[in-house]
Amino acid sequence: MSLTAILVDGLTVRFGSFRAIDDLSLAIDYGEVRAVIGPNGAGKTTLLDVISGITRPKQGRVLFDGGLDLTQASESAIARAGLRRKFQKPSVFEGLSVRRHIAIGADVGFRSRLDAPALEDRVSEVLETVGLTDQADRLAGELSHGQKQWLEIGMVLASDPKVLMLDEPVAGLTDEETERTAHLVRALVRPDRAIVVVEHDMDFVERIADRVTVLHEGRTLFEGSMDRVRADAAVVDVYLGR
Ligand code: ADP
């Protein structure tokens, strides 16, 4: 295993003549929570789309674990390699139980198939981690918005991901739900896992992120701890001060 989970090297993504990502290079290590922040249109979603194989870049490489080039791999190969993403909008199956969702996440994503008892253990463990044990037999459609977010995090977690991407995990959550989500994200940190979070809530980012990458116009404007990000004049100018 390489120390670097994701290595972005000279990445450029064009939509027509517009560069959504412009010669971007960065490294995300195992064991860290990396927040990617920046104004609307900075390229955050496009970066996650490239890492998850949805968008093909014009130039550059994105290496996973020093090997697999994600710009050449299919979406399913990327998921099989252990890179999983929770999208911004909850998209649960309203008529299926919470427990069944987690089982589907484990069954679809797990790199080696689990037998029935192992699957049951895995589902219980994930329900506990995301705080939904007492909701296990409810239908997903009956959950609050916050609980749906945790359920979706549980679904991707069930596959034991190497890289976990979270797209605006606290958008629309109450302060209390945001606090619980911060706890949850920190509980997912492991030496052999990288967690990448795109988020606009800076207090949340400060709670969870080991390092923050500030994107602006498809490039890195600043990278460092949230303290240093808050103190950087250019970041305040293009993003935080607005
Ligand atoms: P962010 O997530 O930081 O708000 P995005 O990655 O969504 O930014 O978008 C970066 C820029 O690329 C934006 O200006 C957006 O309008 C443009 N863009 C994103 N996807 C497409 C697309 N499919 N076609 C054309 N332009 C796009």
Automatic annotation (TrEMBL):
It holds the Pfam family ABC_tran. GO terms for molecular function: ATP binding. The keyword Kinase does not apply. Signal peptide: none annotated. Residues 6-242 form the ABC transporter domain. Keywords: ATP-binding, Nucleotide-binding, Transport. SUPFAM superfamilies: P-loop containing nucleoside triphosphate hydrolases. SMART domains: AAA (SM00382). This is Urea ABC transporter ATP-binding protein UrtD. It comes from Ancylobacter koreensis.
